[in-house]
Amino acid sequence: MNILEFSALIWLGSLVSGFLGALTGLGGGALLVPFLTLAFKVDIRYAIGASLISVIATSSGAAAACVKEGFTNMRVGMFLEIATTLGALLDAFLAARVPTSAIAIIVTLSVLAVLLYSLIGGVYVKAIETQPPPLSCMNIKWGQDYAL
Asked: What is the pLDDT of residues 84-120, one digit of tens each?
C-alpha cells in the first residue's frame, strides 16, 4: 500500500467515523481511535492525538451553530472548559508515563460504557419546574420527559 492509498483510506475512515459519530452522538473520536489502531495498527497515542484534532474541528463548528441559535449557556460552557483543560493536561502528563496496553484498556472500557449508555437510551428524567434553572443549557418545554 502506497502513501496515497493509505491517506485515502484514512480520510474515508475518518469521514465515516465523523458521520456515524454525529448521528449517534458518540463523537467521531469514539470510532476513530479503534479504527486507526485496529485497521491500520497506528500506535494508540497517535490515534488519540489525531482524534483530538478532529474533535476540536467538529466541536468548533457545532459550538458556533449552537451559540448562534442561543442553545448554549456560556456560563456553564466556560466552567466546563476549565475542567476540560485541566483534564487534558493531566491526560497528557499520564499518557507519557502509562503503558500503551493500559491506555488501550481505558479507551476500550470508555467506548463500551458510552455504547451501553446509548443502547439503553440514556437516563430519563421528569422535569417538574415551571421555568428553567439559572444554569440550564437546554431549551426544553418543562413538564415532559426528556432523555439526557
From this structure: 889 888 988 888 888 988 988 988 898 888 778 777 7
Each domain of the chain, given as residue ranges in start order, spans 3-120
Q: What is the distance between the alpha carbons of residues 18 and 54, in angstroms, rounded to a whole number?
A: 9
φ, ψ of residue 144 to 5 degrees: the values are -120, 165
Q: Which of 60, 65, 108 is nearest to 81 (CA)?
A: 60
Q: Is 36 exposed, middle or buried (0-12, 13-18, 19+ CB in 10 A)?
A: buried
Rounded CA-CA distance 15/106 in Å is: 24
Q: List phi, psi (to 5°) of 131.
A: -140, 160
- At position 123, the amino acid (one-letter code) is V
Whether pTM exceeds 0.85 = no
| Helix (H), strand (E), coil (C) string for the chain | CCHHHHHHHHHHHHHHHHHHHHHHCCCCHHHHHHHHHHHCCCCHHHHHHHHHHHHHHHHHHHHHHHHHHCCCCHHHHHHHHHHHHHHHHHHHHHHCCCCHHHHHHHHHHHHHHHHHHHHCCCCEEECCCCCCCCCCCCCCCCCCEEEC
